[in-house]
Amino acid sequence: MTQPTQRTAGRLRPLILAAAGLGLLSAVALPQWRAFAEEPARRLPEAAAVAQEPGHLRSAIVAGGCFWGVQGVFQHVRGVSRAVSGYAGGSQTDADYASVSSGGTGHAEAVEITYDPAVIRYDEVLRIFFSVALDPTAVNRQGPDTGRQYRSALFPRDAEQARVAGAYVAQLDAARLYGRPIATTIEPGAAFYPAEAYHQDFMAAHPNHPYIAANDAPKLRDLQRLFPERTNAAPALVGRPPA
């Protein structure tokens, strides 16, 4: 089968998702996805702005293209008890995959990360996010997926997260670590809406899916290689209660 172009890949993904929802997922019947050139994964510097987070569990919302891979990465991060695929940036009325796929809802595919700041702080979550989960210089695109729903964004839940997010993006840009400016937007005050059940734990459930193998499994390998001290071997699955 002919390799899909970047634009075609974005259009075919809803068909793959529908097949997954119907239990018809088959690597034989699906396009052989290829990885697209991205900024290389690297262990980025620690944040100069350290998050001040009293209390126990906190949550963060990040968007970095297809939520399968972002969820899959953070399900393996030590200190993260839950990572849920969903939508952020739009309203509740159109927080569903069919609507979000149009690119006109304001939503981005996003992941809500529940973490213990005694183990991993918000600034450390961001360090992993920018290091391995996405190409932060891509505008309205990640890998084979194009459109505003695949933009990279941070959705701070309070003033402290907004402070830390803004400072870290500025720090990375000032360090000139990339060939282009960071395109990740900071969008405070957005609500999060969980995605449909068939999206949850997708990477763990379908490790040999061509899209996962080409675009998302390398992110998990980068996490394991660059942050071994932050990596859990077993994922914290949505479909399984926290230990």
From TrEMBL:
Keyword Repeat: no
UniProt catalytic activity: [thioredoxin]-disulfide + L-methionine + H2O = L-methionine (S)-S-oxide + [thioredoxin]-dithiol; L-methionyl-[protein] + [thioredoxin]-disulfide + H2O = L-methionyl-(S)-S-oxide-[protein] + [thioredoxin]-dithiol
SUPFAM superfamilies registered for this protein in UniProt: Peptide methionine sulfoxide reductase (SSF55068)
InterPro entries in alphabetical order: Met_Sox_Rdtase_MsrA_dom (IPR002569), Met_Sox_Rdtase_MsrA_sf (IPR036509)
Catalytic residues in the record: C66
Domain Peptide methionine sulphoxide reductase MsrA, first and last residues per copy: 60-211
Keywords: Oxidoreductase
Enzyme nomenclature, EC number: 1.8.4.11
Pfam families: PMSR
PANTHER family: PEPTIDE METHIONINE SULFOXIDE REDUCTASE (PTHR43774), PEPTIDE METHIONINE SULFOXIDE REDUCTASE MSRA 2 (PTHR43774:SF1)
Family in the record: Belongs to the MsrA Met sulfoxide reductase family.
NCBIfam families hit by this protein: msrA
Chain's role: Has an important function as a repair enzyme for proteins that have been inactivated by oxidation. Catalyzes the reversible oxidation-reduction of methionine sulfoxide in proteins to methionine.
Protein name: Peptide methionine sulfoxide reductase MsrA
Protein's organism: Methylobacterium trifolii
